[in-house]
Amino acid sequence: MEIKPIIEKAKNGDQLAFTMLLDLYWNEVYGFMLKRTENETDAEDITIETFSKAFDKLANYNYSFQFNTWLIAIAKNVHIDLLRKKKSKQNLDITDQEDRQAYNIADSSPSAEDTLITEQNLSQLLQFIKELKPHYQEVIQLRYFQEMSYQEISEHLNEPLNNVKVKILRAKKLLAEIIERK
Q1: 40-86, pLDDT tens digit by residue?
Q2: 118 vs 156: CA distance, rounded Å
Q3: Which family does the record assign (predicted)?
């Protein structure tokens, strides 16, 4: 079949000629791209874009080349462009601020296991504290569970600051001994 008259009709805007060219060369271009991409969707997208570009540039077609060779050359270029686009999407430049934001997204909350261990340790610690004399229990409670300062504890207990410091120090020492024994 002579292809030149069909190409001439297509150059003059004949839609039937475009359809004939598409029907004649679709399988060849699609098959070629399927071998290269090993992906039906990409091969089809490239083939569609190839024919679109070829039909847009049909006026530039040089008859010294076979039409299918010209289409394949266009398809190769479309494929290269697609690969470049994919590569540029994968290698996005990230600013320092975006990088810091990504690190801030990380979940620092304790896992279920961490929470369970903490609860078990806290429960055990509370049992040890209960073995202390009541006035030592009170200063440990105020300092470490209510997070009061030495001055606030002094005012709360109506005792001199130095007495509070000594009581807390003594309570910590006694608690450490209880923990070591267990």
Answers
A1: 988 998 999 899 899 999 999 988 889 999 999 999 999 999 888 88
A2: 29
A3: Belongs to the sigma-70 factor family. ECF subfamily.
Burial of 139 (0-12, 13-18, 19+ CB in 10 A): buried
Calculate helix-pair angle for 67-90, 40-56, nearest 10 degrees. Answer: 120
Nearest to 27 by CA among 42, 11, 44, 52: 44
Instruction: Specify whether the CB–CB gap between 140 and 129 falls below 8 A.
Output: yes
Sorted by where each starts, the structural domains of the chain and their CATH numbers stand as 4-90 (1.10.1740.10), 112-181 (1.10.10.10)
Which ranges of the chain have pLDDT less than 50? 106
Average pLDDT, the chain: 85
